[in-house]
């Protein structure tokens, strides 16, 4: 039950951040890292595979 509550909380926070326009998506890693360094913000890198 704790895991469910944590996941629900994270989803709600993520949805709030997206609606507030705080998350910027980038396709160029070099530019994303440079922008993050300038703004002192973290970078989230996601990976996926279709196996």
Question: How would you explain this protein's 3D organization?
Answer:
With 51 residues, the chain is mainly α. The chain has a domain at 24-51. 57% of the residues lie in helices and 0% in strands. It contains two helices and no strands. It has helices at residues 2-19, 29-39. It is flat. The chain starts with a helix and ends in a 12-residue tail after the last helix.
Summarize the topology.
Layout: H1 2-19, H2 29-39
Q: What are its keywords?
A:
single chain; 51 residues; 2 helices; 57% helix; 0% strand
The biggest beta sheet is recorded as: none
% residues in beta strands: under 5%
Rg result: 14 Å
Order of helices and strands: HH
The chain-level structural class is mainly alpha
Distance between the termini: 30 Å
Sum up the overall morphology in one term: flat
Mean pLDDT rating: 80
């Amino acid at each position: 039950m704790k895991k469910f509550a944590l996941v629900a909380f994270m989803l709600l926070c993520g949805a709030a951040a997206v609606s507030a326009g705080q998350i910027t998506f980038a396709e160029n890693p070099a530019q994303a890292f440079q922008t993050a360094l300038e703004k002192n913000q973290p970078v989230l890198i996601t990976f996926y595979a279709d196996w």
